[in-house]
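Table S2 (continued). Query chain:
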Amino acid sequence: MNSIHSKALPDHLTVRSPEPGDAETIFDLVSAYNTAAIGVADCTLDDVADCLVEPGFDCGTDGWLVLAGDGQPAGYATAFGLGDREVVQVEVTSPDPAVAQWLFGEAMGRAREMGRERGHSEITVDSCIYHADEPLQALLHGHDFTLGTTYYRMRIDHAGVVATPEVPAGIVVRRGAFDDASRLAAHQAMIESFTGQFGYVERPHDEWVEALDASSTFDWSQLTVLEADGRVVAVRSCGDNFVEAENCGCINMLCVAEDFRGRGLAKFLLRDSFALDAAAGRSGSILNVDTNNPTPALGLYQSVGMKTVLVLDGLRRVVRTG
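Corresponding output:
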């Protein structure tokens, strides 16, 4: 394990690498921390378990679990490298400021190490945290992180039947991606749409497929594409992320090819998702939107009746690896 601040931990605490079997312990910590910060757990046991087996994440080098003498969790952190490790996502959770500071140092040390291993002289470190989480905001801003973007979590409630929207002219709707060709076409359309957006790093196709296969809240029937003349021009990926906690459907990703924007495809995919969620007995539909999106996404979601229920900040710092 990469450890550069061991002496800073109080004597009654120990640290080790997390394991998949620690999912319940970590969930207890994270859900309690989130509840204190924003009033709700905002995670499930499946969420935590999925993260521990995420392709590209090595529990032995990229995670830290701090335990008290009675075995109760006192802190948890991860460093997750994207792409060629030119971007590393860091997450820190602890109600104890001293433990949070120690974990932050470990995660940042590992982030730099990842960059050095790939020959980078500098890397970008990102962290997405709740806007209302004042202790973590203070910790990161105190280490020269700055605001890169703000994410709004938006929700619409469903009461009864929601009408199925009319398919736009010239568009073919294909639901589900069960073969390699369909998955590759959808993934390529996503890459073309998202490249250049804040925090987006292209993921190798095989790893992208592996990650979705491993997710407990997704199956390939939840991926929908729109085609025009045989070309994929829009993609929507849904999941069961909020079914357990809020009985809501979730739109994890929605993109439209640049030359097909402004034709109502995104609005169709939103309303189509609402209709499907309502038919499945869901109380509502949820998604996250990046306010720095080059398209007017926030206005689009508001125009179909979605309202902001939570605000998160995307914080960023560029660091030298040497």
